[in-house]
């Protein structure tokens, strides 16, 4: 044991837990020494097995540990954290980048656990957000669905590239080669059909009107038998992923039943389908008590722009650190909101005039997260859209007339405007756009 200097503590008996794959190092600072208020570390190194982890929790209770802290070390920390969540003491989860060792200090498991005990006792770091058990079960389903959707998108891209290598050009003719018409043609090709006219007759609805174009694009002279077998395997894999996504979506809907009201209120946000609402509840929880302001939620989703200033010059630092999972959830919703008749769409059109589309979408995403914060903070809050003509209603009539006249003015022409009622406008506006 080694004496520790006297210091004011938030927890009189704090524990630090170093997480490893095979072992766990637990250190508790207990009162000891000749002087009052001094602390001494007690360290044990149990194994990370089902039999030894409950013994570690019993040892922490015997040491009367009031609080414990650990780093978020991959998935190794989950069994330890969930055990302490059930049996105590209260546990804080720290980001490894914030709780890292000091420069020049040797890296050792015992030293790391002792340092975490000091940090926990002082309250020097804030613990990370860890949702309750029901939200974690929902999060497992939503993240699984997201990974399956990415794998399906990769398989669909692979199914599009394989025919193109053999001069089988479907994508320029069909808007979606994985639709009804495209799927029927691809399955016929994998079954051995090589006649372009027979393949073109498989077109449905609007694609049937352009029979000649599919017929010219469906030449299979360069399609080798081995490539057709690979295409068949890719299509089978994409179909299996679609069935898996449907199964996970059904299970996710069952887990979201306790929060149907909040899911319905989140769907009032422009561009938010039910899937996005479920993903957000799984990532942020059903309450905003852990996020004091909308900016904190945007920062966790990596949508809070950071800037640094030096010598009078401001430099963009990007979105900063955060959790990429909440940030990826409203990514498609911002693009969908830009295609609606809403205030967010008007704001997007206003922003793209002087910034790239990607940056404007991130700004819309941040607005959506602010709306989400207010909806989940209140009991009956919903999104009341301001309207697609919000900026037009706020802009002065004469200013709008001048702006339109400037836009349509060309060299060699002269544009003048005058109000329909002279008492309202005050007179003719100056001519603009004169050549």
In terms of quaternary structure, the protein is: single chain
> What integer value in Å does the Rg equal?
31 Å
**What is the rounded distance between the termini?**
90 Å
The neighbouring-strand order within the major sheet is 3-2-1-4-5
Give unreliable regions as ranges: 425-435
The DSSP helix count reads 19
Strand/helix succession = EEEHEHEHHHHHHHHHHEEHHHHHHH
Relative helix content? 40-55%
Beta-strand content estimate: 5-15%
- Number of domains as seen in the coordinates: 4
By DSSP, the count of extended strands is 7
Q: Which shape, going by the Cα principal axes?
A: extended
Major sheet, described briefly?
Answer: 5 strands, mixed
Mean pLDDT: 80
- Structural class of the secondary elements? alpha/beta
Give the topology, please:
Layout lengths: L13 E6 L4 E8 L7 E6 L7 H11 L4 E5 L5 H11 L2 E5 L14 H14 L10 H33 L14 H11 L5 H5 L4 H5 L2 H6 L7 H31 L4 H7 L7 H11 L9 H7 L5 E5 L2 E6 L5 H5 L2 H7 L5 H9 L5 H21 L12 H5 L2 H12 L13 H4 L10
Parallel strand pairs: 1-4, 4-5
Antiparallel strand pairs: 1-2, 2-3, 6-7
Helix pairs in contact: 4-9, 4-11, 5-9, 10-11, 12-16, 14-16, 15-16
